[in-house]
Amino acid sequence: MNHVSLQPQTELYSIVYCGTDETAFRELNRLAQLVGRETVRVPPNGRDEGILQFTSQNCGENEVNASFHRLFAPYFAKGRVKLNYLRETAEILELMAAVGSAVRGKILGVVGARGGLGTSLTSLWLARILKTCAQRTAVIDLDPVSAGLDALVSEVGCAGKRWADLSGSGALLAGRLNESLPLWKGVRMLSADERGAVRTDDDSGSLAISALSQVNDWTVLDLQRQAFAPGSPGAAWVEWCDLIAVLCGTDIMSLLKTKMLLEKIPAGKSVSVLLMNGKSGGRKADAREKLSLAEVFPVRYTRTMDGDIAHGLAPGDRKKSATAQDLKRFCASFLGVA
Question: What is the value of pTM for the model shown?
Answer without folding.
Answer: 0.78
